[in-house]
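Curious: why these numbers?
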Amino acid sequence: MDNSTTSITLIRHGHVHNPDGLIYGRLPGFRLSDAGRLQALAAATSLRNAALTVLYASPQLRAVETAEIVQSEFAHLPITIAPLIDEIDCYFEGHPMSEVEARGWDLYTGVEDGYEVPEDIAARGARFIAEARAAHRGDHVAAVTHGDVIAFTILQAMHARVHVSQKRLLDRYGISDRYPATASLTTLSYRTSDPDEVPVLTYTRPYDDSLALATLS
């Protein structure tokens, strides 16, 4: 087995400009807010000394903008769009955020067929991880993606139950915010090529509470 470490840092995009308080999903045009750009800059700065070899991003504007800010520290790296880490395909797209908040942020239970469920999201997240490990063995990969994609990918990687009830209980794996904060960095480190290896997980929210609270105003 290969004993060099492969690290994959999953970066959640920064806070989004969303004055109407919608579940934006894959709707076009949702850009970073001013606070989100500052959050993304903090993520870029925290990665400054990392030996990144590749930078992936979800196709969504907010993810690409976050990746572009990370790229400011790694000008030699192109941004590669990765559909496997796209936002979830969601029934509630365009609905008021308050509607989903009242459901405990459950975007899945009781919705009509044809939309993604947690197992679908975990499966494509796992496929992205497997492909990245194979293509970039011994390297440090960064990928800008979305909260539920990161959450369910973590559960899959840790061989845990993939269920909506578990997505905001990730503190047991070192996610100190319990759910990946905007512009947070979750790094999965693999020491071997064993496809069933449970990675070492580290988590950072690279900005203080004042910037986090600014997104609530």
About this structure: The mean pLDDT is 95.
